[in-house]
Amino acid sequence: MKHNVQVTLVLLGLFILAQLVGLVIIDHYNEKDLPYGIEKPDYKPETSFIPLSVFIIIATVLALILARFKAVFLWKLWFLFAVIFGLSISFSVFFNPSLALFLAVTLALLKVYFQFFQQLFC
Prior knowledge:
The chain is mostly helical. The chain is 75% helix and 0% strand. It contains four helices and no strands. Helix 3 (72-91) packs antiparallel against helix 4 (97-121).
């Protein structure tokens, strides 16, 4: 086994906690509008997979283009905006939108900066 039992139980507890927080966030937005004026997309259940599939293909092509041209800065910028977007929507459940955006930007910058810092010296 890769980890001892204590570490495995801590990891399992963190996983379950993350799932519960995700369920709270989804339950909150099932009844309310998204923050920052973001609108929920209108979809028909029988054709909802088509736009999602198109967006996944477009994102994959963009990612491959960035990888092909070694555009590391754009890749990290794209990652930073995605993390800020996701965190700010999630934090808006627990905090007011201004504080949520501030926390999201701060934590996303730390995430990207320290990831770069670790890669630089390891």
